[in-house]
Amino acid sequence: MRPSLVYLSVLVLSSFTWLGCAGRVLQFDRADEVLKNAEYEDKVQVKQVEPPPQPVVEEIPESPAAVKKGAKPAVKSATTKDKKKGKTAEVVHLPDIEDSEGFTGRRPDIDPFRPGEKASFSLSYFNVVAGTLDLEVKPMVEVNGQKAYHFEVSAVSNSFFNRIYMVDDKAVTYVTYDDLRPLNLSITIKESKQLAETRTFFDWKTHKANYWQKRITKEKGEQSKKIEWTILPYSQNVISAVYYLRTFKLAVGKKIAFRVADEGKNIVFKGDVLRKEKLKTDAGTFETFVVKPEITVDGVFKPVGDILIWVTDDDRRFVVRLESKIKIGTVVAKLKSLDKGRE
Predict the structure, then answer these.
(1) Among 20, 12, 37, which residue's Cα sits nearest to residue 189?
(2) Could you read off the pLDDT tens digit of each residue along the chain, which spans 343 residues?
(3) What does DSSP say about strands 194-203 and 184-191: parallel, antiparallel, or unpaired?
C-alpha cells in the first residue's frame, strides 16, 4: 500500500538514488494516446456545483453483507422519527470500527473542510529541500449526480532537484458530501524515468472497485494492468484517508481506525494519538496532536516505517507536518503556508 502523503513525498525524495538521470520529464511521442483511459472517463462524470448547506444526516446503513447477524449498532449520536411506524430510530456512525464522537450519522458535526483551502509544504531530506507538497480542497463538484468534495494532492520537485530527477505528480479524489465515501482516485505521474496514470473507480451500489494502471518507462516501454475487487463499506482510498483523518476528534491516547481500499487490497488504517505538541512553522505556531499510523492488511500488521503526522488541535484539524523514516534518513514535510479557505 502507498501510505498516502508519504507515498507522494517519497516520490520526490527517494529519487536521490538516481543521480545519473536526465533532469526532465520522460519524453514519449504517443504518451497522451497510450495513457488515456476512456473506460474510466465513462464511469466518472464531473461538474462544478455550489457548496451545499451542512444537513443533519440520518442513518446510512452498511450493506447487508457487511453487517453480522445480531450485531449491535455503533454508539448512538442522535435520533430520528420513522414516520411510517411512529417509532424513534437510532442514527449511528457506521461502520462500528470507527469512533463516533463528534458525528451525526456519517457527517462530522463540524465540517473541517472549506473550498479554497491549501496547505503547502517544503519536502526535505538531510535538510536539503527537494520539492513542494500541496494539499488542497477545491470547490465542490457533482460526480455522477452526487455532491462531492474535491481533494487534490501534488508533489513537485524544485529547480535544483530537477537537474537530478524531475517530479511532477498529482492525485485527485472525489468524496461524497453526505456520507464521506470516495468515488474515485486519479493519480498522474510525470517523472524523469516514467510516465503513468492510475485510476480507481468505487461503485458503492455493487461494492466493487476497478483499478487501472497505464505506465511508460524507458526500460520496458508501455505497460498496463487492471484489477477488480470487492470493497468493504465506507472504505477510503490512500489520498482521501489523509482528509478523512481530520473528521475525527482527537485526544492523547485515543486510537482512530477506518477502512482503506487500494490496488486490490482491503486495509485497516489505525492511528495512535501519541502526544500534544506546540509546533512552530513558517505559517505560524500551532497546538497539535502527533499521530502515528499503522496499517493492517487482512488482519495482519504491515510495517510502513516510522511515520508521524502533526494535526492541529482545533475544529479544522489541519495537517501541518509529516515525518517518514526511510532506509537512510528521514523525509520531512514542513508547513510553508496555510490558506484556510472560504469561511
Answers:
(1) 12
(2) 444 444 444 443 333 333 334 456 677 767 777 788 888 888 898 888 865 554 444 444 454 444 444 444 343 444 444 444 555 456 688 999 999 999 999 999 999 999 999 999 999 888 889 899 999 999 999 999 999 999 999 999 888 878 888 888 999 999 999 999 999 999 999 988 899 999 999 999 999 999 999 999 988 899 999 999 999 999 999 999 999 999 999 999 999 999 999 999 999 999 999 999 999 999 999 999 999 988 777 655 555 567 899 999 999 999 999 998 877 788 899 999 999 998 7
(3) antiparallel
**Helix (H, G, I), strand (E, B), or coil: what is residue 170?**
strand
Contacts of 69 (CB under 8 A, 6+ apart): none
Q: How far apart are the first and last CA of the chain?
A: 35
Residue 256: all three cell numbers together: 482512530
Distance (Å, whole) CA 183 – CA 318: 23
Beta carbons within 8 Å of 317's beta carbon, 6+ residues apart: 112, 245, 246, 247, 248, 250, 311
Measured between alpha carbons, how far is residue 26 from residues 162, 165, 181, 198, 219 in Å? 12, 10, 35, 17, 12
C-alpha cell recorded at residue 184: 474515485
Of 216, 180, 179, nearest in space to 196 by CA = 216
Any idea which residue has 444537513 for its cell? 55
Which residue has cell 505497460?
Answer: 223
Rg (CA), the chain: 20
The DSSP line for 27-55 is: P-TTHHHHH--HHHHHH--EEE-PPPPPP
Q: What is the pTM of this model?
A: 0.83
The one-letter code for the residue type at 39 is E
